[in-house]
Specification:
268 residues, mainly beta, YmcC-like fold, 15-stranded antiparallel sheet, 3 helices, 15 strands, 52% strand, globular, DUF3108
Length: 268
């Protein structure tokens, strides 16, 4: 049984940063987080993942890029290279609400040199997915309207951690990945740690993350436990140092930060 087999995104996510209580639910805030990660897959360093989030007042944008390199990229024939972008609004309580998500990639087919483009439009009650070229593959079984309601995309999920209040490891994220795969990340605290990485040295926390598949994957999925390590910083934000993320084709990958920047200042 292949865990995360049909998921094409990252949550990276794996996303990737969380803001502490002192930052508050600031709908009028201007803040940013960016990161460069090494992608480790199947025991080797396989590529790069970059992420950028910017909030200006009551709106936000985020984008990400995943590129597999070396013999791994060649072996996969660029089929695991993707770009991601999302725009959305910030509610009065600080919650992020995506409005338009897009990803493009999967370059294996010669007649699609730039990959297939997927768009997901988020409304208050549903998410509508379109594809170019179409039609969109909604998975088997596809997520129902009720399952899609009150969800966020995986790139916004990273930003949701970045702008959360309270304990960054105490929350559930309802994620609709790539306009297809519906799952929950149930996050719980898993102890304090001392971080000593290329990107940051200092105190941090570990989050235990339960992956709960719900719909849209196309083949049977198993629940699994992932791990995030978030660095505690003087800015009041939390920056992810390591994250484990699902992918299509290479299984669960581990993201390890090489550079972390908060509000324009690089962490050390």
């Amino acid at each position: 049984m292949r865990t995360f087999g049909a998921a094409k995104g990252l949550l990276f996510a794996i996303g990737m940063a969380a803001m502490a209580t002192s930052a508050g639910a600031q709908t009028g805030a201007s803040r940013s987080f960016s990161a460069i990660y090494s992608v480790h897959a199947r025991g080797v360093e396989a590529g790069d993942f970059t992420y950028n989030f910017t909030q200006t007042g009551s709106s936000y944008t985020a984008n990400a890029n995943r590129e597999m390199k070396g013999w791994v990229g060649a072996a996969l024939n660029r089929s695991q290279d993707y770009t991601y972008s999302v725009t959305g609004t910030v509610a009065a309580d600080g919650a992020l609400r995506p409005t338009q998500y897009t990803h493009q990639g999967g370059r294996r087919r010669e007649d699609r040199p730039n990959g297939r483009q997927i768009r997901a439009a988020f409304t208050a009650n549903d998410v509508v997915t379109t594809a170019t070229p179409g039609p969109a593959n909604m998975g088997d079984p596809p997520a129902t309207p009720e399952q899609r309601r009150n969800t966020i995309d995986q790139i916004t999920a990273i930003a949701a951690m970045a702008t959360s209040t309270g304990d960054p490891c105490a929350r559930t994220l309802r994620i609709y990945m790539d306009g297809r795969a519906r799952f929950d990340f149930v996050m719980t605290p898993n102890g304090n740690v001392t971080v000593n990485s290329r990107a940051y040295q200092g105190p941090g926390v570990r989050c235990r993350v339960q992956f709960r598949p719900i719909a849209g994957f196309g083949d049977a999925q198993e629940a699994a436990t992932l791990s995030f390590v978030l660095a505690r910083t003087e800015s009041g934000m939390w920056a992810p140092v390591t994250i484990e993320m699902p992918t299509d084709g290479v299984g669960v990958v581990r993201l390890e930060a090489r550079r972390l920047t908060i509000n324009g200042t690089r962490l050390r």
